Amino acid sequence: MKLLRHFFTAIIIFSCTGTSFSQKIKPKKVKETMQRVADWQIEHFDGLYSDHKKPHHPLDWTNGALYVGMVKWAAMADNDSYFEWLKKIGEENAWQLYRRKYHADDHTVGQMYIELYRKYKDEKMIAPTKEQFNFLMYHPSQSILNWATPYHQDRWNWCDALFMSPPVWAKLYKITGEKKYLDFMLSEFKASTDFLFDKEESLYYRDERYFDKLDNGTKVFWSRGNGWVFAGLVNIMNELDPQSEAYAYFLDIYKKMAEKLIAIQTSEGHWAMSLLGQEFYPTPETSGSSFYVYGLAWGINNGILDKKTYEPAVKKGWNAMVSYVTKDGMLGYVQPIGAAPGKAWPDKTEVYGTGAFLSAGSEVYKLYGGE
C-alpha cells in the first residue's frame, strides 16, 4: 500500500508539471526564463518564502549562493543593471565578508566580489577578502574534522562548505597568480574529501553524523549537499589550468560524481532529496537538481563529458526545473535550509535555489547554441 501511494504521488507530480521532458530547448527561451527568475528574485529579495522568520542578511551564505548564479546571469544580460544591483550590495557592506572569520559559509560572498573586481578592476572590491584569507593562511585552524568537536566548523567538515569557500581561494589564486592560495585550498579540500567522500557510491556525506545512518535502509546522501560539492568543483576548475595536477585532482572527483548522478536521476528529471532513496522521496527538489544540471552541462560544454551519454540527463533535468517556475518567475520546490533530506513545496523557495537555477541556465544556454 505504501509503495502504491508513493507511485501515485509521483504520477501526480509528473502530470502537474505541464512540461514535456523531450521538449526542445531553445537558447532564447532559456534566457527569457532566466531573466524572469532573476527579476522575480530581485523584486522579492527580502521575501519570506521559506521557514525563516526574517530576511537573510545580504552577506549570509544563502544570498552568497544567489550571487554566484546572479553574476553568471549578469554576464548574459543585455545591460549592466544586474551587475549594478550586485555592486550596490558590495558597496553598502564595504566589501566585507560576513561575521565569522573561519566559517566557510561566511566566505561565500567573496565569489561575487571577485567577479565584480574582474569587471570593474577596483581593488577595494577584493581587499578585505584578500586580507582575511591571508590571515587564515598564516593562522590556520587547528581543529579536527569530527563533528561537534571544538571549533569544528572552522574547517570544511561538512560538504556544503566545499561550494562556499574553496572557489574563493581558487579565484584569488587566478587573479593574483599567487600559488599560496591554491596550495592552502587544495590541502584543506583533500582533507575534507578524505573524510566525507564515500568511494563506493562516489557521493559525499553531509557530515560525520551521517556516516553510519540509514534512511529506509539506504545510505543518506543529501541531494543539495552533493549539489553544493558538484557545483563547487566546477567553480574551482574554472579557475585552474586544465593541464595542472590540481585540475586533474578535482576532475577525477567530478567525473566519478557525474557518472553516478546520471545513473540515479529520476524519470521526472529531478534528483531525489535522498539520492539513493527515490522511492521514499518522490517530491521534486530544485536546488540540488539545478546544481546537477549546471555541472553536467558544463562538462559537456568543456569536452569533458560525452554529449551522447550526458545530454539527455541535462535536457530532462532542465525541462523539469523550468516546469517548477511559476508564471511570475518564482522557482518552486526549493527545500528550506537544512542538512538532510526533507520536504519541499511548490509555493516555497529560497534565494540559493534561484542561484543554482541561474547557474544551470548559464551552461544550458551555451549547450543549446547561445553565445
Q: What is the CATH C-level name?
A: Mainly Alpha
Strand order of the largest sheet: 1-2
Q: How far apart are the termini? A: 50 Å
Average per-residue pLDDT, rounded, comes to 94
What's the number of domains? Answer: 1
Order of helices and strands: HHHHHHHHHEEEEHHHHH
Q: Which topology does CATH recognise? A: Glycosyltransferase
Helix content: 40-55%
Structural class: mainly alpha
Total number of strands: 4
Query: Number of DSSP helices?
Result: 14
Give the overall form: globular
Looking at this protein, list some descriptive labels.
371 residues; mainly alpha; Glycosyltransferase; two-stranded antiparallel sheet; 54% helix; globular; Rhamnogalacturonyl hydrolase YesR; 6hp_glycosidase-like_sf; PolySaccharide_Degr_Enz; hydrolase activity; hydrolase
What's the short version?
With 371 residues, the protein is mainly α.
How would you sum up this structure, described in words?
With 371 residues, the protein is mainly alpha-helical. The chain has one domain (2-367): Glycosyltransferase, CATH 1.50.10.10. The protein has 14 helices and 4 strands. It has helices spanning 2-16, 27-43, 61-76, 81-92, 109-120, 127-138, 161-164, 166-176, 179-196, 223-237, 245-264, 286-301, 307-323, 351-367; strands spanning 197-198, 203-204, 214-215, 218-219. The strands form 2 sheets. It has a two-stranded antiparallel ribbon. A two-stranded antiparallel sheet has the order 3-4. A hairpin with a 2-residue loop joins strand 3 (214-215) and strand 4 (218-219). Helix 3 runs parallel beside helix 14, helix 12 (286-301) runs parallel beside helix 14 and helix 13 packs across helix 14. The termini are far apart.
